[in-house]
Design goal:
Strand content: 15-25%
Largest sheet: 4 strands, antiparallel
Shape: globular
Helix content: 25-40%
CATH architecture: 2-Layer Sandwich
Number of strands: 4
Strand order of the largest sheet: 2-3-1-4
Bound molecules: adenosine-3',5'-cyclic-monophosphate
Order of helices and strands: EHHEHHEHHEH
CATH superfamily: Nucleoside diphosphate kinase-like domain
Number of domains: 1
Radius of gyration: 14 Å
CATH topology: Alpha-Beta Plaits
Length: 139
């Protein structure tokens, strides 16, 4: 199977709780190659832009507030079937539905404060990677 790239964010709740190391360990145990990695903080405009697809959803304003409350870690990841595999490692969006051992089961608080983001399709991954990384950034 062909190598694929995906994009991920360790969200403000997980960074504040000191979970960067544990989450990176889960990702590396799942045999992702880290092509890019950066600690950063979203401006309100960046958060609105990144989550524009959700702008009409009732949870949008809360999501923007949450994603700008503190530092995040943005990552460019690669392996076979990367999008689907990362979603398995993350677990369901709502941690109440997440499988044992997944990142969200271990570290998420609720459906909004859910520790990690991962792209939902290869096309989304390409757009999300380009939002945070230039081609020259990726190893
Ligand atoms: P994420 O994978 O980053 O993509 C969109 C985010 O919106 C999602 O994770 C959740 O953090 C958030 N989200 C999705 N559905 C809801 C919901 N029903 N209520 C609050 N937040 C939500």
């Amino acid at each position: 199977m062909k190598l694929e790239r995906t994009f991920s964010i360790i969200k403000p709740d997980a960074v504040a709780a000191g979970r960067i190391g544990a989450i990176l360990a889960s990702i590396q145990e799942a045999e992702f190659k880290i092509l890019g990695l950066r600690l950063t903080r979203l401006s309100e405009a960046q958060a609105r832009g990144f989550y524009a697809v959700h702008s009409q959803k009732p949870f949008f304003e809360g999501l923007v507030k949450f994603m700008t409350e503190g530092p995040i870690v943005v990552m460019a990841l690669e392996r076979e079937d990367a999008v689907a595999r990362l979603r398995e490692v993350m677990g369901a969006t709502n941690p109440a539905n997440a499988a044992e051992g997944t990142i969200r089961k271990r570290f998420a608080t609720n459906i909004e404060r859910n520790a990690i983001h991962g792209s939902d399709a290869p096309e989304t991954a390409a757009a999300e990677l380009a939002f945070f990384f230039t081609t020259a950034d990726l190893i």
